[in-house]
Amino acid sequence: MMRVVTAIRFFVVLLAFGALTACAQFELEFDEEELVKLCQKLQEQFQSEYVLDLAALRQVATTLIPLLETSEETQPIAAWLKTRLDYLEMAEELKPTAPKPTPEILRKTWQQRLEKKPALSPSAKLAARLKPYFTAQKIPAELVWVAEVESSFNPRARSPVGAVGLFQLMPATATMMGLKLRPQDERADPDKSAQAAAKYLRYLYVRFKDWRLALAAYNAGETRVRNLLSRHKATTFDGIATRLPAETQMYVPKIEAVILRREGTALTKLTMRG
User: So what's the pLDDT on residue 100?
Assistant: First the structure.
């Protein structure tokens, strides 16, 4: 196995008594398996309830990405991590706010960030090609932009815990939606991935009757969202948002902002078609 040898300033993220701590400079020797394990530890930190904790991960992530890109085996994880760098940048920007930024603050901040980017996405042609899979499920075609937030429309993207493709489908979800994982992993096929994601989003919307909650369930899991709604006697995403994983707290408002920027449409205005 190829070894990656480098002297770097690397901040090892530790969880001690529920707080993030940074360690100082090390000279580290990594192979691909070790890099994946580091990324798994990094992904675990996205499950914290505290959005601002993500700011501490920014330098870890920017250090890991070039290492991951040196090997064909770990390049898909680099693609996954690059897509999430703006979560870490956003968390840093939000430091002056309250310890748990509200969903409304996150929505406004994402919209402000995206207003600085061109309205036309480099992936617009691919998005247009995939939209019919969403309309075929009678859900808004605008939800194709979930792929921008999940993978930056990179079909090779793979998370450290095994989500794959444009829409970052986990193996169990992909199988439930009719995809095959062997001999070829159909999650890496843009068209099949889009078709499965559209079916899954429809499935979640039918259960939650709300796109914010459906998207939260897509990211954090249906059971977790349903349990939080029940435990806190809530009926909306905003009612449980600060108790969801930090990644999900960022994820749903970002999708809203992306759809608004790409389509000029608010997520709350989207409806099922038939």
Answer: 86
